[in-house]
Amino acid sequence: MSLRVYLTAKGALVEESGAFKKLPATFQLDQLFTSEEPLAWLRSLLPQSTPTEPLAADTPLFAPLASQEIWAAGVTYLRSRTARMEESKISGGDTFYDKVYHAERPEIFFKATPHRVAAPGTSVRIRGDSKWNVPEPELTLALNHRGKIFGYTIGNDMSSRDIEGENPLYLPQAKVYDRSAAIGPCLLVTDRELSKQTEIAIEIRRGGSAVFSGATTISQIKRGFGELAEFLYRDNTFPKGSYLMTGTGVVPGDSFTLKAADEIRITIAPVGTLVNHVA
Description:
This protein has helices at 29-34, 38-44, 78-87, 94-102, 161-166, 171-175, 225-233, and strands spanning 2-8, 11-16, 19-22, 50-52, 69-74, 107-112, 117-118, 123-124, 133-134, 137-143, 149-157, 159-160, 181-190, 199-206, 209-217, 242-245, 263-268, 272-278. The chain is of the alpha+beta class. The chain folds into two domains: 2-52, no CATH class; 69-278, Fumarylacetoacetase-like, C-terminal domain (Fumarylacetoacetate hydrolase, domain 2, Alpha-Beta Complex). The strands form three sheets. Strands 1, 2, 3, 4, 5, 6, 7, 10, 11, 13 and 16 form an eleven-stranded mixed sheet that branches. Helix 3 (78-87) packs antiparallel against helix 4 (94-102).
């Protein structure tokens, strides 16, 4: 059983099997993240919801976010490990990432507060003091206040590779800044685990032409989603729930960097496609 929640200027919409309803005006996303059974709670609102037209392709959307922090896991795919090691050779930090990949404890770091997050269709940013920047397409877990995985969205973990490569301790500056993250286009609320063959695909377009594309599947992730959630909530509290990006398995080659006006398209079929442009 799956429902998709979209946030628009005219209110929250819920979609099930192509049919859309407008949720009651009293709906608050935070309530979903604080519910013991989020899917059941959301379904309880359907009788009070009003059938509406399908969402138009050009409808402006908000990020499916209220009070939730966004966190991220790193070096969860072999491709990410390899890329991190390559970019960090100059600083001698390359062995750190190999150790993280094989360690029991995952790398988990803070990514964004709500005001730093770009909505679908809006612009993400590259840092003014960085010359090597990439998007990182990531399946993102929706976790309630107890750390229960109840849904998924698409995340774009914007990263300054030269800053992180210069010194691993610069990770916060490489990862956390205004509009360094985007999530959307919706929140998929479900009681089903995603298939291991679920594909995460990205295309970067420049001047109307694709300059990079790639894909992976979640079968390639080294760590279980429950494991990542447990480490995030270990000795940590999230009264309004949280989002957790699960790492990237698609990294452009070392000669690639984003440029202003690039279009980033990340697709995970059960969720949809997240589109952003580079400011």
